[in-house]
Amino acid sequence: MFLRQFKYLLAVAEKEHFGRAAESCHVTQPSLSSGIKQLEHELGVPIFLRGRGQRYCGLTPEGRRVAKWARSIISHCDAMRDEIDLMHDNLKGNLQMGAMPSMSPVMPLLIMHMRERHPDVRADVRFVGIEAMTLGLNNFTLDVAISYLNDDSLSHLNKMPIYVEKLSLLVNDNDKFRDRTSITWREAAELPLAMLRGSMHERKFVDETFKKIGCDPIVRVESESIVHLMFQTQYSNLATIIPGHFTLMPGLHPGTKALNLIEPVVSQEVGLIWGDADPVRPMASAMVSTVKEVKDSGELETYLGEFAMTETGPAS
Fold first, then answer.
1. CA distance 250 to 67
2. Which CATH class is domain 93-163+270-308?
3. Which parts of the chain have pLDDT scores under 70?
4. pLDDT tens for residues 234-284?
5. Per-residue pLDDT at 282
6. According to the model, what pLDDT value does residue 309 have?
7. CA distance 196 to 227
8. Are 156 and 273 in contact (CB under 8 A)?
9. What is the DSSP string of the chain?
10. Ranges of each domain in the chain
């Protein structure tokens, strides 16, 4: 068995097409098919279900197990090379990061410092949900993630708190809100709202808060983009709920203002998350060191202002 055979297998599983997989591996289709057939012969099991003309029809049950092992083997080989590069202060390659959409303003600072320490590292940031994030950390397709720390599905992973996310209500800066600095959740529920999609973690947290006070909000627009929701507020009569640090980065759009959401005041702790592999993957280790350095230097506190706290307080 050779690494290239495992790479061929994973390429076909990802592309769901032998021809496209061969292109992604920069080999001819006959070469890729031959490598996979050799692997199947050595293991003594079929890996792929094939239709007419050897068309891809999915993985066999054995093939799914082989693919899982293949990801682990390739990941550990890549990590071995990364560790050797790190020993020579020459870390290079791709840092695979997962993040929730609400963390997008924080990412540039952390990645900038990572690149300053390791100029040959290229960051690949994927904005995904917690389920996909957990899967990525478990199957080694992600090195680290930045997410909420209160989700039970992350309990088996390593974590480092970074900051606490508080919520604000973005409204039109008009006479109705001119002298206001805060607004209750009950008042917010009476306004027409633009909200994140119901399947997203941030939206579920907001829905739970409304439910606790017995309110059913009026949702007029949904989107997966917080920035788009901010534009909805700027150019329409809709209000939207945003993480407090969005008032600093990217900043408020003209004609809008942010009000602190109270009664209750709620917050969620955000942190860096990485797998429990031993040894820790070099890319993850480098990012952990980078985040710790940024926190210890005080730069993160300056960057986030009041949102740099690392402990959540009780809801009030």
1. 41
2. alpha beta
3. 1, 51-54, 87-88, 278, 306-316
4. 999 899 999 998 988 778 889 999 999 999 999 999 999 998 776 778 889
5. 85
6. 56
7. 10
8. no
9. --HHHHHHHHHHHHHSSHHHHHHHHTS-HHHHHHHHHHHHHHHTS--EEE-GGG-EEEE-HHHHHHHHHHHHHHHHHHHHHHHHHHHTT--EEEEEEEE-GGGTTTHHHHHHHHHHH-TEEEEEEEE--HHHHHHHHHTTS-SEEEEETT-GGGTTSEEEEEEEEEEEEEEE-SGGGTT-SEEEHHHHHTSEEEEE-TTSHHHHHHHHHHHHTT---EEEEEES-HHHHHHHHHHSS-EEEEEGGGGTTTTPPTTEEEEEEESS--EEEEEEEE---SSPPHHHHHHHHHHHHHHHHTHHHHHHGGGG--SPPPP-
10. 3-72, 93-163+270-308, 165-267
Domain 165-267 indexed as CATH 3.40.190.290:
yes
Task: Say which CATH class 3-72 falls into.
Answer: mainly alpha
Count how many Cα atoms sit within 13 Å of the Cα of residue 208 in the half-sphere of its side chain. Answer: 10
In angstroms, the CA 125 to CA 226 distance is 17
Report the DSSP pairing between strands 56-59 and 48-50: antiparallel
pLDDT at residue 316 in the model: 33
How many angstroms separate the most distant Cα atoms in the chain? Answer: 75
Residue 118 CA to its chain's centroid (Å)? 21
User: What pLDDT was estimated at residue 312?
Assistant: 46
> pLDDT at position 54, please?
63
